[in-house]
Specification:
Length: about 130
């Protein structure tokens, strides 16, 4: 028998109108909220696809670095990326500190992936 967790909505049957506010706010306010949320849903979906593409690219970098025994992190590259993103964020009226934190969060995950790829690569080389 399959178990269902009722606290976590099923992603296959996404309810765009799900809200703890239902029944607590005027219908017109709810309608406006749902309309804005439909843009948020599109943006979130785009972010997922963009991140998936970025991780596909960084995975290739991970394999290249492992094959040539290069370090997972490249602090010089990161400094340049952070400075650039902070400038872009300012132009876009996004908090530069948030942009930096977000990039660092993603890069931290990429470095973990690189390290895992390098370990696998090393283990495979030892088997030969
Ligand atoms: O460009 C690289 O060398 C990467 O490994 C990718 C990346 C990134 O996610 O942008 C991740 C780790 C490095 O410290 C720098 C950049």
């Amino acid at each position: 028998m399959t178990q269902q967790n009722h606290d976590v909505p099923d992603t296959d049957t996404y309810d765009a109108a799900a809200s703890s506010l239902a029944g607590h706010v005027d219908n017109s306010v709810m309608a406006e909220l749902l309309s804005i949320r439909s843009s948020i849903d599109n943006i979130d979906a785009t972010l997922v696809y963009l991140l998936a593409e970025r991780f596909k690219a960084t995975q290739k970098v991970g394999f290249l670095k492992a094959a040539h025994r290069l370090p997972a992190g490249d602090p010089g590259r990161e400094s340049a990326q952070i400075a650039r993103l902070r400038r872009l964020a300012e132009d876009a009226h996004l908090d530069p500190a948030f942009a930096e934190k977000f990039l660092n969060f993603i890069i931290g995950e990429v470095i973990r992936h690189h390290e895992a790829i390098a370990e696998d690569h090393q283990a495979a080389a030892e088997w030969k």
